[in-house]
Design a protein that fits this description.
The structure is a homodimer of 339-residue chains.
Chain A lengths: L9 E7 L3 E8 L4 E8 L6 H19 L6 E8 L3 E2 L4 E2 L13 H9 L3 E5 H12 L7 E7 L3 E7 L2 E2 L31 H5 L1 H13 L6 H6 L6 H9 L3 H25 L3 E5 L10 H17 L2 H6 L1 E4 L6 H17 L4
Parallel strand pairs in A: 1-4, 4-7, 8-11, 11-12
Antiparallel strand pairs in A: 1-2, 2-3, 5-6, 8-9, 9-10
Helix pairs in contact in A: 3-11, 5-8, 7-8, 8-9
Chain lengths: 339, 339
């Protein structure tokens, strides 16, 4: 631990999503001093969107009470596609029209501070690695379960960002080579094609169409939308189909986790994101992760199967901006770019 | 490049296999100054086996003409299972009975030089990364196709050895989750269960049992053994089943390669080992790798699919000991342990 008081240095973390942008001021120990969350308004385009982000940063710095020169660096996490070395967003799926935006340099130039771009799932993983559920880990994999299946891999304080900025995209590992489900990203038989929110609902609809009995049928007949939340509530209420669908998702996640364990062999695998069914706080969440562990024990080599911690992430929605700030801190420490 | 003459420093590389041990003296530029290959005689047990290795090293140093104090360090590559941090072989599948052998320290103590243990497939990958087909690569994955499907991953001069010494075991990624083939290592539906030598032959036998016409049937009826070499010769001679079996292997390798690309995103993927069908030297070898590339183009994200080099390794049988020596050089440079 540094003997300095933690307010001497701080970092800005930005987590840009399709719906909201989250910004936090994070001190050298990983504690948020201030944070805010505002609509991205992606439909207004990149220029207005970036101006909005800059205002968010200014407001968060003001809120935190830190002096501007205490901010050493700024981390910005965005969804892909992106080119990390040049700091560019390329064609982000969740931000239509925000193409070829040099977001890193726009932010750096505006504030006169070093800025660092990172993939959003990687940033969330880095946040957990720095001060979350992975803080005692040397090498870590984190899944983010939501619309897509995000993944971030950290090995010995290094993010696996890849040579074409598509490292750690383990939601797209193949789990079923023949007759695999189709994913909108253009892949077949991948983990995301089974467990992403849309495909989770698809599996429910297919089971209903095949005649499975379930309370979910009433939802549809009432004209309501079938969502992961609705399915999860039905499972909580004892619906067998809903429960099966969730346990199947756990099985798929266990298979993908085995593949990543046989590649990276981390000491810790975490699960975060919206589709984690209440995590360790609910019986369903506990059964979900236990089913993942069971599948890993069945498939992985005995030593990593026994020794690798598999658990839920801890930082929730804050993982992204904390990780982005932590990554700025890490890069500042590395290159001396931050004075 | 260092201004020193390359003979100032050299490294010993040991590649210990179930059948043979290969030892080389490698200079600072990765050039072998001497090398030898002798039977391992694993059936004589670990104590006699280690004594044999020590004699091999002494003979190779003598052959090379370098002075003993020019040797800075010794790298030793062994098959798993192993514990890399403690320098132990645990229960190597190919060396029955060589259990819990502290091979790194036995070698280091005998020669009074720092020694470093590494997994054999990782060492071969590191050899190619240092001075072989991956020498211009930043991040690299190398498959070694043989009895098993070995894999080595190098990212920015770091070998992914994992937290339990089971990193880079990508032969055991899952490619078919349900009804997958069984692999003797205890896994189901993994890449090795389809493409390892034994399973390659199994697929041939199954196709024959299912009534496929093929010249391979005559091999069996003549009482000869069906081997990968025999199948490959039949394919060369125009046998359609043999050709299909090899192209199916290529398809499986393309699927496994896609999974690893979506995890690591290297700039280079290499194929080495015995089951590479003549490599770029033969029409069959060229079609084999082209079929792998085709499968990757079909399945991987467009940017890495277009930009990742997929090719054959170059160092052949020498990759292992050159890589072991290179890894000793790398570790010597890192820690100052080598004076």
């Amino acid at each position: 631990m540094s003997p300095r008081t933690t307010d001497d240095h701080c970092y800005v973390g930005i987590d840009l999503g399709g719906t909201n942008v989250k910004v936090g001021i994070v001190n050298d120990a990983g504690r948020p001093l201030a944070n805010l969350k505002r609509p991205t308004h992606s439909e207004r385009g990149a220029e207005a969107g970036v101006a909005n982000i800059l205002r968010c940063v200014e407001d968060a710095v003001r809120q935190s009470g830190v002096k501007a020169d205490a901010v050493r660096g700024i981390g910005v996490a965005t969804p892909g596609t992106m080119d990390i070395p040049s700091g560019m967003m390329l064609r982000p799926h969740n931000l239509p029209g925000w193409n070829d935006v040099p977001i890193r340099d726009l932010i750096a130039d505006h504030f006169g501070k070093p800025a660092f771009l990172q993939n959003d799932a990687n940033a969330a993983a880095y946040g957990e690695y720095w001060v979350g559920a992975g803080r005692d880990s040397k090498s870590m994999v984190m899944w983010t379960l939501g619309t897509g299946i995000g993944c971030g891999i950290i090995i010995h304080d290094m993010i696996i960002e890849g040579e074409h900025s598509t490292g750690s995209e383990c939601g797209h590992v193949v789990i079923e080579m023949d007759n695999g489900r189709y994913c909108d990203t253009g892949q077949y038989g991948t983990l995301e094609a089974y467990t992403g929110a849309k495909y989770f609902v698809q599996r429910a609809l297919e089971a209903l169409a095949a005649g499975r009995e379930s309370s979910l049928r009433e939802v549809i007949e009432a004209g309501d939308e079938l969502t992961p939340l609705v399915i999860s509530q039905a499972a909580d209420a004892g619906d067998q189909l809903a429960d099966d669908l969730i346990m199947d998702s756990a099985r798929y996640m266990g298979i993908g986790t085995t593949t990543v364990m046989h590649t990276i062999d981390p000491d810790c695998v975490l699960l975060g994101g919206a589709m984690t069914f209440g995590r360790n706080e609910t019986p369903l969440g506990r059964r979900f992760i236990e089913r993942i562990r069971e599948e890993v024990r069945r498939r992985a080599f005995p030593v990593p199967a026994a020794k690798t911690l598999i658990d839920y992430a801890q930082l929730g929605e804050e993982a992204g901006y904390i990780g982005a700030a932590g990554w700025a801190r890490r890069k500042c420490g590395e290159g001396g770019a931050c004075g």
